[in-house]
Specification:
The protein is built from eleven helices and 13 strands. It is of the alpha/beta class. Bound molecules: adenosine-5'-triphosphate (ATP).
Length: about 300
């Protein structure tokens, strides 16, 4: 069976700018898929075109075989799109906002209360949307996207305005959507979010796809060295450099970092010197993959 979402040589331009530049990939039914990239990479443009809000300048998008730009009612019933919270109906309460969406989709009001509970907004149900915090508004917009129980859910930076606790709660909620068998596609700046949530991640910059794979495979493919971080006084830099397996030593005021591709050997040697106290070991992360691909500092 083919992919549920098929993006084929997609190009979207704003004048001379190719915001999406000849991008091809597929997303399987039930997959949790992330578009990861810095500001201006083209994630939102890509997502909006896949959702059917923008027309491709070249190439095509299909969801379940439908062209989303044509807004076929059959397809609209199957996809949920998180809108920007600035697009709420004015002066409605959170509950009224959700109930309005439910009415538009012909969905019963019982689902409104269920969703308010699921996104943790029961306490704010009677607050006007203008009085919601950024994070609360973000959660309400996600609830609106889910009101008709769509099989495919699109989210644009769903956790960008959330504090760490609300963010974790929302991650659990999104993982729950995935566990129910839904396809979820989101954009994010956050490496951590991509690693925690996504089955596969597309790393995007300058409108192009730089890499696409499971986060763990992207990291493994990097073949990056391990960093062993010691207290500055654990061992002298010269002794550290002489240990078997150490490729480089980076001293600074707070730490002494040993860079190695033979971590067990180095750890053994440090153990013999009783220099393990307070040690931390850091392998490669998605951030290292990103920096390796883009060759520049990440602009979160
Ligand atoms: N309506 C528009 N008209 C002209 N240029 C645009 C428009 N929208 C976006 N752009 C430009 O297209 C490029 C891609 O923008 P886009 O919003 O898709 O990136 P993004 O990865 O979602 O960024 P962010 O993480 O900041 O939201 C940027 O250079 C941006 O300035």
């Amino acid at each position: 069976m083919g992919a549920q979402i098929e993006v084929d040589h997609l190009t979207v331009t704003y004048g001379d700018l190719r915001a999406v530049d000849d991008v091809t990939f597929g997303v399987g039914a039930g997959e949790f898929f992330g578009l990861l990239g810095p500001n201006g990479a083209g994630k939102t443009t890509m997502l909006e075109t896949i959702e059917g809000l923008r027309r491709p300048d070249a190439g095509s998008v299909r969801i379940d075989g439908y062209d989303p730009y044509r807004r076929d009612p059959q397809l609209c019933a199957r996809i949920g799109v998180q809108m920007q919270s600035s697009a709420f109906f004015e002066r409605l309460t959170a509950r009224e906002q959700l109930a309005t969406f439910a009415a538009l989709y012909g969905v019963g009001r019982d689902r409104v209360d269920l969703l308010l509970e699921q996104v943790g907004l029961v306490d704010k149900a009677d607050a006007p949307v203008e009085k919601l915090s950024g994070g609360q508004a973000q959660r309400l917009s996600i609830a609106c996207a889910l009101v008709h129980d769509p099989q495919v859910v699109f989210l644009d930076e769903p956790t960008s305005a959330l504090d760490p606790q609300a963010r974790r709660n929302l991650w659990d909620f999104l993982l729950g959507l995935h566990a129910e068998g839904r396809t979820v596609m989101l954009t994010t700046h956050s490496m951590e979010e991509a690693e925690q949530l996504c089955d596969r991640v597309a790393i995007v910059d300058h409108g192009r796809l730089l890499a696409l794979d499971a986060p763990a495979r992207l990291v493994a493919g990097l073949d990056a060295p391990t960093r062993i971080i010691l207290r500055p006084d654990a061992i002298s830099a010269a002794d550290a450099q002489a240990l078997p397996g150490v490729d480089a030593v980076q001293p600074d005021e707070a730490t002494l970092t040993l860079i190695t591709r033979q971590a067990p050997t180095v750890l053994g040697a440090l153990g013999q010197r009783e220099a393990l106290d307070g040690l931390r070991v850091r392998g490669a992360t998605l951030e290292d993959v990103f920096l390796d691909l883009t060759g520049r500092e990440y602009r979160a």
